[in-house]
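Exercise 3.2. Students should predict the tertiary structure of the chain below and write it as structure tokens, then compare their answer with the key that follows.

Predict this chain's 3D structure.
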Amino acid sequence: MLRFAVLVSLMICAANLGGPAAAAATATAAAAAPAADAPAADPRIALLKLLPAGAKIEDLKPSPIAGIYEFTQGAEISYLTADGKYFIDGNLYDMKSRDNLTEALRTHARIALINAVPESEMLIFSPPNPKYTITVFTDVDCAYCRKLHSQIAELNRLGIRVRYMFYPRTGPGTESWRKAEVVWCSPNRNEALTRAKAGAVLDMNKTCAPTPVKREYELGENIGVRGTPAIITEKGDYISGYMEPRELLDQIKELQVATR
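Answer key:
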């Protein structure tokens, strides 16, 4: 602002040398001139009007490409041009390194979201000295979730610690949802989950409040779970669907050493 004030003073002095008419013309020009130091409006403010309700300005960050913003919702990443004309849903790759830059953002987002949940709200099956930890979004009635759980002892023997979160695919108020709540409200949750996945009849009247089912279901939605079992590694990689224990171990090892 000091620079602008000095500029106006110089213009007025110069105008006075040229007489009243020149002074008046110069003063009019000075009044019309924009403030040189006025901050430019943040383009993200206008872009927010184009985005879903609840989007915040911090959800928009400059991408590696000039004129394009990254838009983050949970672990879902998309892109928006600064002028608001184009929305891009897809992956951004670095052509030199061949790295998937979008997936790298997703993995970090998944880990941040999962780490915000205390382990006291998970069902954990662990060997004494685990080498790897996976977080599994599971549905009590999902056939492949049941198959994976039937091999939980083998997973533990291979050094894999399994942390379960509930993701009843049929949604709130359904039988699978209520079964998840019954499992959580049982005195021995791990045993109840094993029984439920083996097809045992549950006492559907044994409920309690609160349960983490709703929170974990919504977390799965934010992470982008599309089906169960959905397996998230310690580094945030998403493994979709069932794998045999040894195959799953190999996949975990491969992802563990992958660059981001």
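Discussion points: Residues 1-32 have pLDDT under 50 and may be disordered. Residues 141 and 176 are 6 Å apart (CA to CA).
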